[in-house]
UniProtKB/TrEMBL annotation:
<dbReference type="InterPro" id="IPR007253">
    <property type="entry name" value="Cell_wall-bd_2"/>
</dbReference>
<dbReference type="Pfam" id="PF04122">
    <property type="entry name" value="CW_binding_2"/>
</dbReference>
<dbReference type="InterPro" id="IPR051922">
    <property type="entry name" value="Bact_Sporulation_Assoc"/>
</dbReference>
<keyword id="KW-0732">Signal</keyword>
<dbReference type="GO" id="GO:0008745">
    <property type="term" value="F:N-acetylmuramoyl-L-alanine amidase activity"/>
</dbReference>
<feature type="signal peptide">
    <location>
        <begin position="1"/>
        <end position="26"/>
    </location>
</feature>
<keyword id="KW-0378">Hydrolase</keyword>
<protein>
    <submittedName>
        <fullName>Cell surface protein</fullName>
        <ecNumber>3.5.1.28</ecNumber>
    </submittedName>
</protein>
Length: 150
């Protein structure tokens, strides 16, 4: 008797849920975002934001720093821009003109001191978040997010 009651309730609930209208408004418009390369594509995404702080990661590394940076980007509403270890592509430099502050994610093995010096020369405040390995870098990024959101 108990099983029949449970089956009846389950079936009734299933029918009710199935009869609820589903809205697919989120899928009405698909926008393709693509640039000539990954640096330009990241720049085009940044162009859609209003920002004074940006996050810089090395696009040639394993992207572990990018995963860590994504939480910080959400916390401060900043774009993640891509660079090389010792050379900032023009597509990235163009977007950094709007920034007053840049977080560099990773140590000097990811983005060297020269890149930091170039940005400081443009009057941009730099804050490097790094650790002795990917896990410690990610931890330091998380600590920064925590200090910002308090």
């Amino acid at each position: 008797m108990k099983i029949k009651k449970l089956l009846t309730i389950g079936l009734s609930l299933s029918i009710f849920i199935a009869s609820c209208p589903i809205s697919a408004n989120a899928l009405d418009k698909i926008e393709s975002i693509k640039g000539a390369d990954k640096y330009e594509t990241a720049g085009i995404i940044a162009d859609k934001q209003n920002y004074t702080t940006a996050i810089l990661i090395n696009a040639d590394s394993t992207m572990a720093d990018g995963l860590s940076a994504s939480g910080l980007a959400g916390a401060i509403n900043a774009p993640i821009l891509l660079t090389k270890k010792n050379n900032i592509p023009n597509a990235t430099l163009k977007r950094l003109e709007k920034a007053k502050k840049v977080y560099i994610i990773g140590g000097e093995n990811s983005i060297d001191k020269y890149t930091e010096t170039v940005l400081k020369g443009k009057g941009i405040e730099i804050k490097r978040l790094q650790g002795s390995d990917r896990i410690k870098t990610s931890y330091n990024v998380a600590k920064e997010i925590n200090s910002i959101t308090k």
